[in-house]
Specification:
two-stranded antiparallel sheet
Length: 176
């Protein structure tokens, strides 16, 4: 819920106009006491559910780096699904939904039962976008591409930032 929706839904104010509520909510959000109170509530909630910022980043990283070969393999003989017993904890977390059903087909040669499986993964794009926003990769960067040394420095710094972030996320994850 955003500030405007919260303002409209709290029941303390009479305005029903979305533009008026947006303006009033913006003023409230600029108030240092309101900011501090929201921060305190956020910290209380994080403590209650025992979650840290890095936990969220690690989970987003797992989703963003999931690999289809963790779940199935394919070749000349078709597709082979891997047993859920063999999936790592990271692979299991990347699955949003699994559906299994049977098709019974009656034919001249008898009855054939086919087991069908449908698996939906969490969105890699959404996880990557959230990670990129958190890491500040969407901020505008001004680079003079005509200056070779600056370009190499920026590229080197970007690679180093990604390397440190990856090490921080992967290096501190618990084995399950």
């Amino acid at each position: 819920m955003n500030a405007t929706d919260a303002y409209l839904n709290c029941g303390m104010f009479t305005t029903k106009s979305r533009p008026s509520a947006a303006s009033a909510a913006s003023k409230l959000m600029a108030n240092p006491f309101v900011k501090q109170y929201i921060q305190e509530l956020t910290e209380e909630k994080k403590t209650r559910v025992s979650i840290e910022d890095d936990d969220v980043l690690r989970e987003q990283y797992r989703l963003a780096t999931s690999d289809i070969t963790n779940y199935l393999s394919w070749g000349p003989n078709g597709i082979s699904w891997k047993s859920s017993d063999t999936l790592s904890a990271d692979a299991r977390r990347a699955i949003e939904q699994v559906e299994i059903w049977q098709d019974v087909i009656e034919g001249e040669d008898g009855t054939i039962t086919k087991l069908r499986l449908k698996m939906k993964m969490h969105s890699k794009i959404a996880a990557l976008e959230q990670l990129a926003k958190h890491l500040g990769l969407y901020r505008p960067v001004e680079i003079d591409l005509n200056v070779k040394d600056e370009r190499e420095t920026v590229i080197s710094e970007a690679h180093e930032l990604l390397k440190r972030t990856r090490e921080r996320l992967l290096g501190s994850q618990d084995e399950e």
